[in-house]
Predict the structure.
Amino acid sequence: QVQLQESGPGLVKPSETLSLTCTVSGDSVTIKGYYWSWIRQTPGKGLEWMGYISYSGSTNYNPSLKSRVTISAETSKNQFSLKMTSVTTEDTAIYYCARDHMIPQSRYFFYAMDVWGQGTTVTVSS
Amino acid sequence: DLQMMQSPSSLSASVGDRVTITCRASQGIRNDLSWYQQKPGKAPKCLIYAASTLQSGVPSRFSGSGFGTEFTLTINSLQPEDFATYYCLQHSSYPRIFGQGTKLDIK
């Protein structure tokens, strides 16, 4: 059974860098067809997709966050990480890591975020 | 960016009822859409992908339909454990966009 677990500081000061890690168990981050994603949730903006790192190491970021976000992977530890610079109180949220799974069906590929971490709350405050 | 408009934002229903939640995309997304259920304090759970394919282990009272710009999630014979918030998610393009959510509570 695949499991994802987020870890990292729960409190970050404004203007500093938020760093979170997602540890994957029961699967490998290098398996073809998986896009390892970060999603955050706030009461005001709902669920916001932040970006992914793919099984091949390629990345894709939400343009609204692109200049501040970096997602990387450490394959030897089967982990992937999120770094977001210059945080403000607007970045206070629950942060989830998730597996976006590319699923072949007929002649096409579809996607489903089929495995999620439990989420970790990050508060930005001085 | 593509926009996803989900309605209603909240819905009250009783056990045994049939409910329908709608998601509309601002442009055609074929059937590149999935649905999620989220309970308080928990991560979202995938119910349906490809607009109508039930994720493994999801009860058959859940169903999805739609193609292009309009999609529906239907729950037949509501059970107590179905009271939650539901989200759609488009997979047609990046950035991925979630609907704003529909909170389903007990009447």
